[in-house]
Structures are given as C-alpha cells and as structure tokens.
Amino acid sequence: MFVFDHVAISCETLAEGTTAVEAALGVPLGPVGQHPHFATHNRLLSLGGTEYLEVIAVDPDMPPPDRPRWFDIDRFSGAPRPTNWILSCPDMTDALDRCGPDVGAPVALARGDYRWRMAVPANGRLPFDNLHPALICWDSAHPAPRLPNRGCSLVQLVVRHPQAQALAGRLGLADDRITFETGAPGLVVTIDTPNGHKTLG
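The structure corresponding to this sequence follows.
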C-alpha cells in the first residue's frame, strides 16, 4: 500500500540547507520551487525512479499561511537535518483509514503541471513526534523522473523513536531500506552518491 516517495531535509533558510546538503553529498540540487499554500520553498535531488530528496524551508518572501505549515517547520531550528519522510499511496482515503485521523486531512496542492494531495495535520505536526511519515497521493506525473540524474539513490532510512516498533506495525512497510530502531526521536538517511555513501542526520 505504501511506497517510499521522498525524504525532507528541513533548514532555517533554503540557502543554508542547500549549502549543507550539496557539501555533504557532493552533487548539486535542482532549482528552487515554491509552495504558496504553506509559504515554503524547496530544492530537489533525484534518488532515481520516483524517489527524491527535498531540502525545504520557510519562504520569507511569501505572506504567512493562515494555518501552521507542514512538517512542523514553523518550529524548526538548528542545523539542516532530516526531519520528515513521505510515503506515497494509491488511495488517500484507504491510507487515512489505516493510519488514523491524527495523520491529518488531505490538502490538494499544485505546482506547474504537478497535482497531488498530502495529508497534513491541523497543527502541522505528525504523530510519533513528527516521525510518522506524511502521506502523499500523486494525481499527475511524478516530479522525480524529470529531475537531473546525479547518480544518487537511497541506501537506508533509519527511523528512531521510543515507540519505533509500534510505528513500524502501523505502516507494514515492505522496504528493506527502511528500518525502525528504538531510541531518541530522529531520522538518519544514507545516500549512495558518485562520491560514495553519504549520511545525513
């Protein structure tokens, strides 16, 4: 039912996040994109197929939204780091029935010719200390295949939380790259790059 879609690297400013991620991975990110609904902007990196890495920050040039921003990014501070991961699903209604109302309500979004729905909690913060994956359903072509191929791919995503096994049981993922460990909340992402394996988090 659920398939890994992308991982989000939050940062206080997009420029800071871009510098940090490009230095860590040794590859350039894509151009800046904007999300007017949540007043954020981002830059993407293809991880092959329909997977990507997203560097995201509040867009200071946009008026603040009338609701908390997604990914709890209003409260983000500190160095750029992985904060959220996103799973795609073919049916948002079924996905929310499985995961429960605390995962949020679907928000219809668009950018250019891309159309998608994402479940966003009213307070912007996902369950399990924001480590429950956000759920996305693409209603158009996926953006990842259009991104430049930088020779990067996901090796491993480690989800750490005191209730990691409860989260794993709720999702029922069949992806050996994604592991759940009991511990202090956080994400650790390992990316295969032309410069070898690189770890963020």
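Helices lie at 14-25, 92-99, 127-130, 164-171.
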